[in-house]
Every structure is written in structure tokens, then in C-alpha cells.
Amino acid sequence: MFPLAATPGAGGTGSLISFIVPLVIMFAVFYFLLIRPQKKKQTTRNNMLNALQKGDKIITIGGLHGTIMELTDDIVVLRVNDVTKLTFDRSAISHKVSES
Length: 100
Fold this sequence. Notes:
By secondary structure, the protein is an alpha+beta fold. It has one helix spanning about 10-50; strands at about 55-60, 65-70, 75-80, 85-90, 95.
């Protein structure tokens, strides 16, 4: 009646393997295309944030350009112009501006 249905007891191990192998392949693809690059990017960002020093020119996530005046573990004070100082979280820094 059902020509595509497997008979009981025949091929039980083969169907389990044919179910697991695609899942393993999918996980491997997700790992190498999504998870691993994201971890690498996060590590690079954390290294950049930890290497910041007074006097570095940076750009915040909101696009504000400034120079670091004070620096603590989680707070950064930026000099935007001669008289304006703004306080940001360290995580609000997008990237450091290269000097060249």
C-alpha cells in the first residue's frame, strides 16, 4: 500500500545515520560561516578597546569624533573641541582613527 515506507526492522541504522549526517553538516556550515567569524570580530574589537590610551583619536558608534582625555575600565571622557568634554561608555567606541 505504501511503496516508499520502510519495512519494520530493515534499515533502522541507515535511516539514523542519514538523519544525523545532514545535521552535522548543517552545524559545521553554520559554525564556519556565522559563529567563527563573529567570534573573531568580537575578539578583535575587545583587543582594540583594551588597547586604547589617552590621546587616541576615536569615533563613537554614533559618529562623534573625539580625543580620549580620561580612561577608566568602563568610562571614557572625550574632548570634542577645546572646551567640550563628553563622557561615554567604553563600549560606545566604534573604532580608533589611524594617525596616517
